[in-house]
From TrEMBL:
Domain MADF, residue spans: 11-49
Family matches, as InterPro entries: MADF-dom
Name assigned to this protein: Dvir\GJ16705-PA-like protein
Length: 73
């Protein structure tokens, strides 16, 4: 997979608009077909296609590490 440079703020906004990707209480949270379609839409909008989900996971993990680090202060 190519490590595409993407607009992280736009990625976050696009994921935020699709609550079923992150809200475990959403009725469609476990709907793999819907999730797959949403990631394809996000990738197409960002012109990264298959890389959108992976980039979001990297960003999410980096933010989690930052939050953990901040708790130590």
């Amino acid at each position: 997979m190519v490590d595409a440079r993407i607009d992280e703020e736009k990625l976050i906004l696009l994921v935020q608009e699709r609550r079923h990707l992150w809200n475990i209480k959403n009725v469609d949270y476990k709907n793999k077909h819907m999730s797959s379609r949403a990631w394809k839409e996000i990738g197409a909008e960002l012109n990264v296609h298959d890389a959108a989900e992976g980039q979001f996971e990297k960003l999410s993990k980096a933010l989690d590490k930052t939050a953990e680090f901040d708790k130590c202060d």
